[in-house]
Amino acid sequence: MTTHDRFRTNIATWGWLWLKRGVVATPLEALEWNLRWILGEFGRRRHPELAQVNVEPFLIDLVLDKVLTADACCLDVGAHIGSTLAAMLDRAPRGEHAAFEPSRRKSSWLQRRFTSASIHNVALGDSQGSVVFYEDRKRPGFSSLAPAEGVACDAYQVPLARLDDLVNAHQRVDFLKIDVEGAELGVLRGAESLFAHQRPIVLFESGPGAAERCGFSHQGVWEFFGRHEYDVFLLSHFLFDREPLDYTDFDRCHTYPFRAFNFMAAPRT
């Protein structure tokens, strides 16, 4: 890709993302989502086997309705442009909220937009220091600490921190969302104290191959939750109080046709 082509791609990508973040937490957000849903109809018809994955955004909204009280305290790890953070603030206006986003540009947007939340421009993991962040030029929402092969990225150093060092062990945390494109296990390992003391309900992403690119595994995520006496659920199972997954089913979700990209984890007690 030439410098000119790269410039045009960045302008188009970030210009569109800038417009999208402008409608977050406004009446236009639902309109934008409905438009995307309509435009995606052809793709959904071509792949009916992915129906459960396609409805996950709706199920996540229902999960937030179920678990968040007006004074719930939430953490959004991998906040992107703030859609989930906005939903947290809307449902829990009396709670204390924090968001974590390694992208410099998106973190700056979040700081200006969500003044009532604590915004941290860091990547989270199981150690402190710095790490290379790979910002996807075409799909910034898929930026990662370990990019997929052949993906054009802008790479730069960002601070790396542990959640346990940023959140006081006795600070109330009711709900934790983690979407960091494969580095979820690193975030969890850096939050051992948080899980021991606060035991939040967790919404986390676990997609095929993403954890392995970051040097982790979805089995490691499963084992982390098991060690802390958490059960893992499909979104729909959590909503309707059905049985949690066993490891065989969780593992199978990572193989096509995918049953889920997002999961719930809740304390057994």
Properties at a glance:
269 residues, alpha/beta, Rossmann fold, three-stranded mixed β-sheet, 14 helices, globular
Structure description:
There is one protein chain. With 269 residues, this protein is α/β, with parallel strands linked by helices. It has one domain: Rossmann fold (3-Layer(aba) Sandwich). The chain is 43% helix and 19% strand. It has helices at 3-23, 28-39, 41-46, 51-54, 56-67, 83-91, 104-113, 163-166, 184-189, 192-197, 210-213, 218-227, 235-239, 247-252; strands at 74-77, 97-100, 118-120, 123-124, 129-136, 153-161, 175-178, 201-205, 230-234, 262-267. Strands 3-2-1-7-8-10-9 form a 7-stranded mixed beta sheet, sandwiched between helices. Strands 4-6-5 form a 3-stranded mixed beta sheet. It is globular. The model has no long low-confidence stretch (mean pLDDT 93).
- Beta-strand segment tally: 10
- Please, what is the average pLDDT? 93
Largest sheet: 7 strands, mixed
Q: What is the number of helical segments per DSSP (H or I, 4+ residues)? A: 14
Proportion of residues in extended strands: 15-25%
- Name the CATH superfamily classification: Vaccinia Virus protein VP39
Task: Give the low-confidence spans.
Answer: none
